[in-house]
Automatic annotation (TrEMBL):
CDD domains: RsmI (cd11648). Catalyzes the 2'-O-methylation of the ribose of cytidine 1402 (C1402) in 16S rRNA. Gene3D superfamilies: Cobalt-precorrin-4 Transmethylase, Domain 1 (3.40.1010.10), Methyltransferase, Cobalt-precorrin-4 Transmethylase, Domain 2 (3.30.950.10). GO terms for molecular function: rRNA (cytosine-2'-O-)-methyltransferase activity. One of its GO terms (cellular component) is cytoplasm. The keyword DNA-binding does not apply. Residues 1-200 form the Tetrapyrrole methylase domain. Belongs to the methyltransferase superfamily. RsmI family. This is Ribosomal RNA small subunit methyltransferase I. It is an enzyme of class 2 (transferase). Its EC number is 2.1.1.198. It comes from Leptolinea tardivitalis. It catalyses: cytidine(1402) in 16S rRNA + S-adenosyl-L-methionine = 2'-O-methylcytidine(1402) in 16S rRNA + S-adenosyl-L-homocysteine + H(+). HAMAP family: 16SrRNA_methyltr_I (MF_01877).
Length: 224
């Protein structure tokens, strides 16, 4: 059986009892980064063999893991933080497991998408998660333009190295909409900066940007 286990996005206290029970009982933990997952397992005094599963070995590793599950092994798939397969490796393994007839279940838990959304102060009743945008500005603006007139709140992930330029492109495509930038969610120095896109461009340009950011932007003609 394949267990899709959500892990904390920052605060280790957010791990669920079901997640801990599952990690203790599976035969193998498949993880995006075995060092990061190893720290998590050690913190909760769980000793389990691990296998790395990332974008560079997905196909080969997926075949191997599916083979183990067909032999009767139980496997937990985790990412570095949050729910596996959401902007992280895992989709290929899920598809391979389903094709092979392997039973799958999910152990839900923290996710930056929902946490940032509810903290943003923007409409939460309908939203679109777009993941990581393209790295180059020209491709990124085309990517953003798809949702230019979408009424739904938009959610993106972005790295600290491209955050300011991303916000500038958002301003150019969407206009000066209300938005929020979230960082270090659930951690001691959790940060949520709210304002218009032009204000966020100005503020972000002066910030010490580290870690992954979640950007939440109001939909077209949102009723705020």
């Amino acid at each position: 059986m394949l267990y899709l286990v959500a892990t904390p996005i920052g605060n280790l206290g957010d791990i669920t009892l079901r997640a801990l029970e599952t990690l203790k009982n599976v035969d193998l933990v498949v993880s995006e980064d075995t060092r990061t997952t190893g720290f998590l397992l050690k913190h909760f005094e769980i000793k389990k063999p691990q296998m790395a599963f990332h974008e560079y070995n997905e196909e080969k590793a997926a075949d191997r893991v599916v083979g183990m599950m067909l032999e009767g092994k139980n496997v937990a798939l985790v990412s570095d933080a949050g729910s596996p397969s959401v902007s992280d490796p895992g989709y290929r393994l899920v598809r391979a497991a389903l094709k092979a007839g392997v039973e799958i279940t999910a152990i839900p838990g923290p996710t930056a998408v929902i946490t940032a959304l509810v903290l943003s102060g923007l409409p939460v009743h309908s939203f679109t998660f777009r993941g990581f945008p393209p790295r180059k500005s020209s491709a990124r603006r085309k990517f953003l333009a798809v949702d230019e007139q979408s009424p739904h709140t938009l959610i993106f992930y972005e790295s600290p190295f491209r955050l300011v330029e991303f916000l500038k492109d958002c301003l150019a495509v969407y206009g000066d909409r209300p938005a929020a930038v979230a960082n270090d969610l659930t951690k001691k120095f959790e940060l949520v900066v709210r304002g218009t896109l032009s204000e966020l461009v100005e503020k972000s340009a002066t910030m010490d940007l580290r870690g992954e950011f979640t950007v939440v932007i109001a939909g077209f003609e949102a009723n705020l």
